[in-house]
Amino acid sequence: MTETGMNRRDAPSAGELPLAGKRVVLGVTGSIAAYKAADLVRRLREQGAEVRIILSRHALAFVGPLTFQTLSGHGVFLDREEEAIGGEDDAAIRHIALAREADLLLIAPATANLLGKLAHGIADDLLSSTALAVTCPILVAPAMNTVMWQHPAVQSNLSLLQSRGVLVAAPEEGPLACGVEGVGRLADLSAILQRVVDCLARRHDLAGERVLVTAGPTREFLDPVRYLSNRSSGRMGFALAEAARERGAQVVLISGPTTLTPPAGVTYLPVITAEEMRDAVHRQFPSATVLVMAAAVADYRPAVSSSSKLKKTGQPFSLPLEPTPDVLEGVGAIKRDGQIVVGFTAETQDLEAQARDKLTRKRMDLVAANDITEAGAGFDGETNRVLFLTADGEREWTPCEPKRVVAHRLLDWVLRIRMRRGKGIPAPSVP
Ligand SMILES: Cc1cc2nc3c(=O)[nH]c(=O)nc-3n(C[C@H](O)[C@H](O)[C@H](O)COP(=O)(O)O)c2cc1C
Fold it and tell me: Please, which pLDDT band fits residue 82 given cuts at 50, 70 and 90?
């Protein structure tokens, strides 16, 4: 199956369907949610994608190839190589040919079995062999019973896949086919489609940018075992790093301590204290074109840190604090023409006034402000709702959305600012 002459481009031009010229290979596996994949084919095509379908042997117990053949307008590839139903009849090695032509391998629904095979490099059928042969991004949309989903084996396979850069459209909570309610339902088709568009349509619009992202909390030590910190999980910064990498940027992620796995393809620099964060940012900033400060850096640290563990005395204890170095203020002073600096600010009152003041004082180009008293916004959650303010006076409130979506919105603003300036991407400064 070698089709040539496709018009391949990195990003659609204005007015064009977002997936025009893109080829999605859709793998469907043996889940009760397999019937939903038929609608997904229709919706992918509505967005301009060419769709090629591989049904696993077990998927065939749930759905028939004729539906997929009709909806995709192409032959459907089955597990056994000799059985392409209505497929182009050539002698190419199918998994290699399919892999070579793919802009994205989407597996929806993805069974626990498929995730396990992918994680461990097992290639015992057409879909898993194709997954090993692709060089394009892979997006999986798992669907299964809640207990299966929560099983440590499934979760560890998933983490392994994510650490290799496999994208995941996480399953949702709701009533499941097995009669229980819980996490495991195939992600909403609109959410899967959005991930596909994020991954393909915008894919290289940050090519050439060198994006420096900070994430997570810092720790300020009183003694070798105790520290002051905050509730930042690092999720917003990690989502930003991943989104920027997906869109073609070179990414450096400087993070305080978190439990998250750094996204694949990103240079990861772990730090602990505000001072280490400041030093790392100042080292990396000259070669960056964009800095996004999503870290929750401590404002104060203990004035004295004991080298031995402080003993309990039973007496009242007061802890003198001193300000930590302000990472952003220092950066504002060395910022070069063309570098774009973005900050986050978490506020509990006067959000817009406080954020605008910070934007001006710290010479930022864009600020993303959270009202952390709002449910679903700010620290330690999966979602965020922010107010974007630009140095040129624009403002945008986002809905409450997954942090990954907010990350893409922020990067869209960065691009808008870059284009408005019209000077192109600045060269790195030579130290
Ligand atoms: C009625 C039925 C429904 C199933 N639904 C799921 C499911 O939603 N998710 C899943 O991971 N496995 C499900 N399974 C189990 C898979 O079909 C089984 O693990 C199979 O080996 C998957 O093969 P495949 O990954 O090659 O398609 C189901 C099995 C049956 C009989």
Answer: very low
For the CA of 79, the nearest atom of ligand 1: 26
SS3 assignment, position 216: coil
- What's the pLDDT score for residue 81? 53
For the stretch 84-105, pLDDT in tens is: 555 554 545 888 889 989 999 9
Band of pLDDT at residue 14, cut at 50, 70 and 90: very low
109 alpha carbon to ligand 1 midpoint, in Å?
10
Q: Tell me the per-residue pLDDT of 284-299, one tens digit each, with 9 for 90 and over.
A: 999 999 999 999 999 9
The angle, 0 to 180 degrees and rounded to 10, between the axes of the packed helices 189-200 and 403-421 is 30
Enumerate the domain spans of the chain. Answer: 23-200, 210-301+320-421
The yes-or-no answer on residue 136 being catalytic is: no
CA angle 332, 334, 335 (to 5 degrees): 65
**Backbone phi and psi for residue 211, each to the nearest 5 degrees, phi listed first:** -100, 125
- Which residue is closest in CA terms to ligand 1's atom 13? 31
Instruction: Compute, in angstroms, the gap from residue 333 CA to the centroid of ligand 1.
Output: 58
Whether the CB of 111 sits within 6 Å of ligand 1: yes
CATH, domain range 210-301+320-421: 3.40.50.10300
C-beta of 274 in contact with ligand 1 (< 6 A): no
Q: For residue 270, what are the β-bridge partners?
A: 255
> Distance, CA 282 to ligand 1 centroid (Å)?
51
Q: Into which CATH architecture does domain 23-200 fall?
A: 3-Layer(aba) Sandwich (3.40)
